[in-house]
């Protein structure tokens, strides 16, 4: 890059110029999390049951199968329930607070939706044998995730 003159190296470009040029060529940072917003859960209690009225809408935003999300929630809560496909609602056979459901949904998003490498929500779950793999469509990373 440089030529030796009397034991000293002469630099063709200075460090500041190269650094400035590098930062000019980097793509602009975008807030990835801002384009991925989950709708608020519409939770209703009917007797001893809890109903999530907009369950299908939440699953669609995550780009996950509603039955997969239902399986995760019911396993974490240690209870039973069923998914009403006609109305897009999840009926949980237990009294569950909205805060608990929100925490579980956030944990699901962090583990099974957001790419741990680039932070993009553009992922899909692929099953290879008994292992679930989180495949990122944005960066191509593949990450095994815990089974549910």
TrEMBL record:
For this UniProt entry, which residues form the secretion signal? none
Q: Does the keyword Protein biosynthesis apply?
A: yes
Q: Which GO terms describe its biological process?
A: regulation of DNA-templated transcription
Q: Can you tell which superkingdom this protein's organism belongs to?
A: Archaea
- The entry's keywords: Initiation factor, Protein biosynthesis
A single GO molecular-function term is:
sequence-specific DNA binding
For this protein, the record's InterPro entries field holds: IF2/IF5 (IPR045196), TIF2_bsu_arc (IPR004458), Transl_init_fac_IF2/IF5_dom (IPR002735), Transl_init_fac_IF2/IF5_N (IPR016189), Transl_init_fac_IF2/IF5_Zn-bd (IPR016190), Znf_GATA (IPR000679)
Keyword Protein biosynthesis belongs to the record: yes
Domain (GATA-type): give its ranges: 115-140
Assembly mode: Heterotrimer composed of an alpha, a beta and a gamma chain.
> What is the similarity comment for this entry?
Belongs to the eIF-2-beta/eIF-5 family.
Primary role: eIF-2 functions in the early steps of protein synthesis by forming a ternary complex with GTP and initiator tRNA.
- State the name under which the record lists this protein: Translation initiation factor 2 subunit beta
Q: Which organism is it from?
A: Pyrodictium occultum
Q: Which gene encodes it?
A: eif2b
């Amino acid at each position: 890059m440089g030529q030796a003159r009397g034991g000293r190296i002469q630099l063709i470009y200075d460090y500041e110029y190269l650094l400035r040029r590098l930062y000019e060529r980097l793509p602009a940072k975008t807030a990835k999390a801002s384009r991925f917003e989950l709708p608020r859960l519409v939770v209703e209690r009917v007797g001893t049951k809890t109903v999530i009225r907009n369950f299908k809408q939440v699953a669609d935003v995550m780009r996950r199968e509603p039955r997969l999300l239902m399986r995760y929630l019911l396993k974490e809560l240690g209870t039973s329930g069923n998914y009403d496909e006609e109305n897009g609602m999840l009926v949980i056979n237990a009294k569950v607070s909205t805060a608990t459901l929100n925490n579980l949904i956030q944990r699901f998003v962090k583990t099974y939706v957001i790419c741990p490498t680039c932070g993009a929500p553009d992922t899909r779950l692929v099953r290879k044998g008994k292992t679930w793999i989180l495949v990122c469509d944005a960066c191509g990373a593949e990450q095994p995730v815990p089974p549910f």
